[in-house]
Amino acid sequence: MEFDRIVIRYGELSTKGRNRKQFIKTLAHNVKTAISDMPEVKVYGERDRMYLILNGADPTAIEARLRPIFGIQSFSPAIRTELDVEEVKKAAVVLMTELQEPNWTFKVAARRSYRDFPLDTNGINQTIGGHVLNAFPDLKVDVKQPVVKLTIDVRKEGVFLSAKHILGAGGLPVGTSGKAMLMLSGGIDSPVAGYLAMKRGVDVEAVHFHSPPYTSEKAKQKAVDLAATLSKYGGDVRMHVVPFTEIQETIKQQIPESVIMTVTRRMMLRITDQIRQKEQGLAIINGESLGQVASQTLESMTAINAVTATPIIRPVVTMDKNEIIQIAKQIDTYDLSVQPFEDCCTIFTPPSPKTKPKLEKIERYESFVDFEPLIQKAVEETESFVVESSQKQAKTEFADLF
Ligand code: ATP
Ligand code: MG
């Protein structure tokens, strides 16, 4: 007898009434994507719970895949038995054996929705609890703060036993809030912004601006690696790499130095907005944080934002750098972000950009240059591809060794 399934408890989606079906469907899809290299595992999204039937797969490996998936409140590896008291006793001992530790305590928490089972809730607690106590002489009962809570759920389909309650990532399943384009640099902030948007169910596609030969292949790879890390949280991420050299060179030649940065950002936003339209996204996400650098004053944001009416979501706008770094470390993007490769913006940025650019002036400077064909060309030559989840990549590489 061994763990044959994982029971997933839904997060906030339980309260979503009418949209519940869509939420469950999306979550099931995301779970399937995360374990698509384990075809033996079957996923069943029921109204109250989701079940993963393992068919021999290793529950610990799946555990790691489930932890980052948004929309999961908690989950537990479980054993299913027939509606038979002796079977339940056996399963309880198997389960507890795995969790033995010094000074351990436990309690049985039984639930019974199937009324024809021979024992009622109290009966289950006493009979199974007594049997477990006999099997482990060092084990004691603690009903208030047990080390192990042995949950026994009696349903029509069978009895489900579980003891490990693993906290999920919370949030909403990625995809239930629609799609948006994430402006993904190689920095610390934008991956965190992407992660936070994903947490609220946004399906994120990454847009990265690349200016060879001023920026290296490594800088681009860094953005791809960041996207791969993000894909742990929401399935494979689609990525768009925009060739930005010509526009940056034109800006450098034609635009006064003090507003180069503002104009550059406006061009990036215009291009991102066109890609968004093509991909049918609903919003744009960036990693701007108020007051962090010259481009991130309210005056700057106003001048940059003026090129589009599309909603711009700035998940980290009010966070301190330290708060952003803390999240970056938690989500495994920090070490990638601090790799020292030049970003396309840093190269052309003058030492002292205007912190309070005036929109009229910016528009006037831009009016002397025909940016439109350059923008069209950049959009047309954008390279689009899907970045596979880094977890699956690791697994494939490992398999290649044999
Ligand atoms: P980050 O840490 O995300 O790079 P930052 O603090 O360096 O942010 P800026 O360089 O001013 O801030 O960039 C502000 C935002 O503009 C970024 O968070 C990102 O969303 C977007 N951005 C900047 N550079 C690029 C790029 N090369 N490709 C795509 N988006 C970019
Ligand atoms: Mg940056």
UniProtKB/TrEMBL annotation:
Q: Which GO terms describe its biological process?
A: thiamine biosynthetic process; thiamine diphosphate biosynthetic process; thiazole biosynthetic process; tRNA 4-thiouridine biosynthesis
- Source organism per entry reads Listeria grayi DSM 20601
What SUPFAM superfamilies does the annotation carry?
Adenine nucleotide alpha hydrolases-like, THUMP domain-like
What are the residue boundaries of the THUMP domain, all occurrences included? 60-165
Q: Which CDD domains match?
A: PPase_ThiI, THUMP_ThiI
Q: What is this protein called?
A: Probable tRNA sulfurtransferase
Assigned protein family: Belongs to the ThiI family.
Where along the sequence do coiled-coil regions lie? none
Q: Where in the cell is it found?
A: Cytoplasm
**Positions with a binding annotation for ATP:** 183-184, 208-209, 265, 287, 296
- Could you say which EC number(s) this protein's record lists? 2.8.1.4
Q: Which gene encodes it?
A: thiI
Q: Which GO terms describe its cellular component?
A: cytosol
Q: Does the keyword Nucleus apply?
A: no
- Molecular function terms from GO: ATP binding; CCA tRNA nucleotidyltransferase activity; tRNA binding; tRNA-uracil-4 sulfurtransferase activity
Keywords assigned by UniProt, alphabetized: ATP-binding, Cytoplasm, Nucleotide-binding, RNA-binding, Thiamine biosynthesis, Transferase, tRNA-binding
Q: What does this protein do?
A: Catalyzes the ATP-dependent transfer of a sulfur to tRNA to produce 4-thiouridine in position 8 of tRNAs, which functions as a near-UV photosensor. Also catalyzes the transfer of sulfur to the sulfur carrier protein ThiS, forming ThiS-thiocarboxylate. This is a step in the synthesis of thiazole, in the thiamine biosynthesis pathway. The sulfur is donated as persulfide by IscS.
Annotated metabolic or biological route of this protein: Cofactor biosynthesis; thiamine diphosphate biosynthesis
> Which reaction is this enzyme known to catalyze?
[ThiI sulfur-carrier protein]-S-sulfanyl-L-cysteine + a uridine in tRNA + 2 reduced [2Fe-2S]-[ferredoxin] + ATP + H(+) = [ThiI sulfur-carrier protein]-L-cysteine + a 4-thiouridine in tRNA + 2 oxidized [2Fe-2S]-[ferredoxin] + AMP + diphosphate; [ThiS sulfur-carrier protein]-C-terminal Gly-Gly-AMP + S-sulfanyl-L-cysteinyl-[cysteine desulfurase] + AH2 = [ThiS sulfur-carrier protein]-C-terminal-Gly-aminoethanethioate + L-cysteinyl-[cysteine desulfurase] + A + AMP + 2 H(+)
